[in-house]
Design goal:
It is built from one helix and no strands. The protein is mainly alpha-helical. The mean pLDDT is 93. It is found in: Mitochondrion.
Length: 80
């Protein structure tokens, strides 16, 4: 077999092994990501609930602040 034929054959073998290796790696990575899907969903749901809780607390604090501000304003106007 001539040298160019050997080089071409070697290149084909290396390319084929590279493609097979990449596909295997890609499948393993995809499978792992699919397994992590439910975990990410639960984390996302927990963050959403936490954000809603913070939003409700912020609304309550805003209402208390506005009531206190109105009381102080009414007190200052009565003192004039």
């Amino acid at each position: 077999m001539s040298l160019p034929a050997k080089l071409f054959f070697g290149g084909c073998v290396v390319t084929s092994l590279g493609i097979i290796g990449y596909i295997h790696y890609s499948q393993v990575r995809d499978r792992e990501r699919m397994r992590q899907g439910p975990v990410r969903d639960m984390e996302r749901e927990a963050r959403r609930r936490h954000n809603i809780r913070l939003q409700v607390e912020q609304i309550e604090l805003t209402k208390k602040y506005e009531e206190e501000r109105d009381r102080q304003t009414a007190g200052e106007e009565a003192g004039r």
